[in-house]
Each structure stands twice: as C-alpha cells, then as structure tokens.
Amino acid sequence: MAEKLIIFDTTLRDGEQSPGASMTKDEKLRIARQLERLKVDVIEAGFPASSNGDFECVKAIAHAIKESTICALARANDRDISRAAEALQGGKATRIHLFLATSALHMEKKLRMSPDQVFEQAKLSTRFARNLTGDVEFSPEDGYRSDPDFLCRVLEAVINEGATTINVPDTVGYAIPELYGNFLLDLRQRIPNSDKAVWSVHCHNDLGLAVANSLAGVMIGGARQVECTINGLGERAGNCSLEEVVMAIRTRRDYFGLDIGIDATQIVPASRLVSQTTGFVVQPNKAVVGANAFAHASGIHQDGVLKARDTYEIMRAEDVGWSANKIVLGKLSGRNAFKLRLRELGIELESEAEINAAFAKFKELADRKSDIFDEDILALVMDESVTSEHEHYRLLSLSQHSEMGERPHASVAFSAGDVEHHAESDGNGPVDASLKAIESKLATGAEMLLYSVNAITSGSTESQGEVTVRLQNGGRVVNGVGADPDIVVASAKAYLSALNKLHSKIERVAAQG
Ligand code: KIV
Ligand code: ZN
Questions:
Q1: Which atom belonging to ligand 1 lies closest to the Cα atom of 167?
Q2: 135 to 46, 51, 132, 223: CA distances (angstroms)
C-alpha cells in the first residue's frame, strides 16, 4: 500500500493573514464546511489567542466539523496554548500548533531571546501542550533560515517532549526546491528520534516557488504533510496552493507514489467560495482553478482535443469540479428543485428560514434572468440577507440616470437598522454616484482599497455582475460582495455589505507577535 500524504489546509489561518482577506465567523464556517467536503485531513481554523473573534471562530468550527482534524495555532507560551485548547474543547479530532522562531535574525531582533532561552521555551511549551492534547505540531518559525545545528537540537528536544508533527516553514519564501528538500532530509537524518514525528512542509510563495519547494520537501526531504491554502491565498505572494500541489501529486502518481484523501471534484467550488468571500480574484491562467485552465484557444489544440482528449489535456476539467456553465434552474423551478440543487452543490443552509430567504431571492433573480446557473446560486447564498450574517444596512431601491456627455445622478434608498434613508448624488459614473449618495448620509469616512467587477458566468453580457468592495476604517480592512444583473445595484449591495462588516466590529489583531 502507498504511503499517505496529509493535506493540511491553512486558508482560515495563514490565508486569512493576507491584508483584506479577514472573514466573519459565518464565512469561516462556510469555508470550513467546504474544506470538509473537499476531505482535507487537517483544517487550521485560526489563532484563538489573537482575538476573541478568532477564538469564537475556532470554537464554532471545532464543534461543526467532524471529518477533518481541527487545528489551532498558538505561540509557544502557556496562555496561548491554554486558549487554543479551550477553543478546541469538544471537537472530535483536534491539534494544537505551536510556533517559535529559531533563526538568528528572528531570535535576536524580534524575540530578543538567546538561543538557550528559545530552546527551553520550545521544550516547556511542547510539554505543556502535550499535557492538554495528544496531537501537537511544532513549527520553528523561519526554520529554513535557521542554523541547522541549532534546529537539530530544538527539534530533537520537542520530539522527546511529544510533538507528533514537525513542520519546517520557509516563512519568507527564500528556499529553492533542491536546497529545501535537502535541508529537510539532512534534519531527518541527523535527528535521532526523527522517525517519531510526521514531517511537514510550509512554504511561502515570494519567489513563486512554494509549490515546487513543497513537492521537493516531499520527494527529497521525505515530508508526509503539506501545508497549503485554497488559491494559494496568504500574506504577500501567498502560500503553497492546495489545488496545484494536490493535482501534481495525483496526476503524477507514477512519480510521487503517494495517496491523498482529497475529493478533487470539490476543488473548483472551494476555489470559488474562497475567492467570493475574500474578494481575491483568481487569475484566468491560474493552474487548475483559473477560468482558462482548461480552455484551448488555438485551432491545433482544439482539433487535437476533439480527436483524442489526452493529446493536450493531462487532467479532466470535470475531475476538479468544473461544471461548464450548466443551466440548472429557471423561472418555473419550484422550491423542491431549488432545495435539491442546493444539496447537490453541497450548500447547507442552517434553517428553513434561510432556505425560504434564498428561494425568494432565487425567484426574484429568475424573473429578471432567464437562465440560472450554478454560479448564480452560489452568489445568491453568499448574500447576507439569506444567511444569518448580521445585516444592519440593506439596499431598498436604486435608480440612476446616465447619458453620454452628462454627469450621472443616482437616488438610493436604504435602511440602517430601523431607519430608512433616501440619498442622492452626482458622480463620475453611475457607480460612483450611487456610492457617494450612500456615503453622503452615513459619512463613514471609510477608505476604498479595492473595487472590482466580475461576470459570474463567463461568455455573456446576460451574466450577473459580482462586485467586490474592500474598505478600510479605523485600522480594519473588510470585503463586501454583491451580485446582481445590474452592476450599479451590485456595487451598492457590495458597498453596504462591507459597511455591515465594519458595523459588526469583529475584533482582530495581527496574528504573529
Ligand atoms: O510561515 C510561518 O512561519 C508560519 C508559522 C506560524 C507556521 O505561518
Ligand atoms: Zn506561514
């Protein structure tokens, strides 16, 4: 039997550290459920000691998810570890992930600790964590830039204290595949008790090498766990992307000879969900999940694929969850057909009230748009008026006038709690006028960091527009998403959705101290 490669997803922790990618509890839960459907082995759900909000997210995910191990990050100190254990309490399978920097640079400049102090703290904190749970991962932060002799000393000690997984982060994305693979191999060969732990890779993508480095860590270094994120989400240039690493191992099983438990047909739905939730758009030519990943434009390629698929295709689009813009429902579809399609798409709405709200939205959309695609349904259930997200601001109506050569004008009605507002404004364009009208009443002073529009289904102007707005206010960055066949309405919805998040004051602090 082939050995298994453990897939550890950190979209909800390291991915979320990306500025602008922070998520609400409901959003994190929705993504955790999708990761469970994807059958990832370990979900790193957050960093409980970083904020009360993150603590609550980890707690909710640990209660909801049964098929994947739920992991919580902690700095190597008793308070963080206790907080992580508390958040994970009651979960079916749980892990505490400790990290402590070991590179000379980080120890001296960031931690202001001597190597001996770091060694002692690594040992004592692992012992403390092992007394709380049987599954403990230890990460020497900036491990790849650490002195190998010191790293051997620390890692041998934490394995002796009971660490069950040793993760070697390339925190700043500095590694080169062959060098990283050999670095890991060297550690495993020199540490006498290395066979008592599973070895793991955690690579950042600053040089665009995160996937290559992770694969080298597996093949050369003997790692049996890969840490990764959906769409490669993460700080700076991101993390190792789950879809790429998984499909490389699966497509080239002849070379890697490893088994993975992932249900690849859930990859594209997971990619869409993460992109819609965070507002981080997937580039069209991104491997596996990009809109063009399976599109053959050249005549020679098209001809070849029609004659024999494998002339130019090494994977099948449907195997990773592409459903080719299927028309699934229309104006006459009933509640049962709608409910069934939700189930087939793996969407679990919490209550009958949510299903009713989603169905009402669906009917409204079907009156305006003849064909409803899976993508439309996914966008519809992201709407805060469908899910149980807190919705303080709500769009009631919008009209705008624009004419070539004239300055556009918009009138917007929206509610803020129980109060109804009517606002008007001019603007450079109809979107600008609509958002200025809202701002003229609320005067939030929020700064817009991003505005983007995408067609939900490609290839037609009949598609709904999906707008993402990223706002910053009082040190917080949030994303709002809105969808509608009218992009001006979608923009107003996205703007109000972002304001709802700012209004809900979800607490977050920087993840790494
Ligand atoms: O990149 C890193 O070093 C990390 C650790 C916390 C594992 O994310
Ligand atoms: Zn990281």
A1: 7
A2: 16, 23, 9, 17
